[in-house]
Amino acid sequence: MSSYVLLANLRAGRCSNTAEVRLLRFWEARNVRKDGELMSLDMLLLDEQSTLIHGSINSSRVDTFRRRLSEGSVYSLSGFDVARANPKYRLSDSPVSIRFNDGTFFEPKTDSDKDIPTELFRFRSHEQFLALANTNRELPDIVGGVSSVRSTITDGLRGPQRVMVTLRLEGDVNVCVSMFDDRAVTFQTKFDEHVSKPRVILFTSINPKVVGGKIHVFT
To answer: Pfam families, alphabetically (predicted)?
Structure first.
């Protein structure tokens, strides 16, 4: 029987111990240079000590695990590979990441006695966004009041779709969040579903840039 392991104690190599984690979010990673070819199914996992870690399922194994994935659910995880985290586009502060292999056990655990938080965000101040801008080092989260929403979709313009949301952060600092194509359409659809327009919006895993001397973030 495998022993229990906390995410903070993971070391590079094959791990046969068992972790209990909450699946916060998962998404498809696609190669835009190869017509959107699926590269992997990526996710964020969280344990009882609020350690956040990036997990990845190679495209060849996606069909094996996809149907088991449910955001917000707790899972028992064992038999996975631990690798050094990519220093670029970091989604967590952990020095390592998890990679599923053919022998990985990943099943829902409905009787867990672990007190795992239901969510965790990596917010940054405006000054920290400035320091991260154009570095591609990490992809933090952002939340703010909605000042304006501009959309080529609602304007009925042809060509590439774009939605730009201006958020007001603490200190009355404005930041423009830009989304393109499928992400723009998905956002606009969800935004339009609200009877009353949202006054506060949270975006996760954004990439800050300085454009024209001002902070812009891209999803």
So the answer is: DUF223
DSSP 123: B
Q: DSSP alpha helices (H): ranges in 49-180? A: 62-65, 126-132
74 and 153 together in one domain: no
Q: Structural domain tally of the chain?
A: 2
Helices (H), 36-141: 62-65, 126-132
Nearest to 135 by CA among 120, 146, 151, 124: 124
Residue 1 has pLDDT above 70, yes or no: no
- The answer, as to whether pTM is greater than 0.85, is yes
- CA-angle at 165, arms to 217 and 211, nearest 5°: 40
| Residue 69 falls inside a structural domain | yes
Domain span including residue 181: 126-218
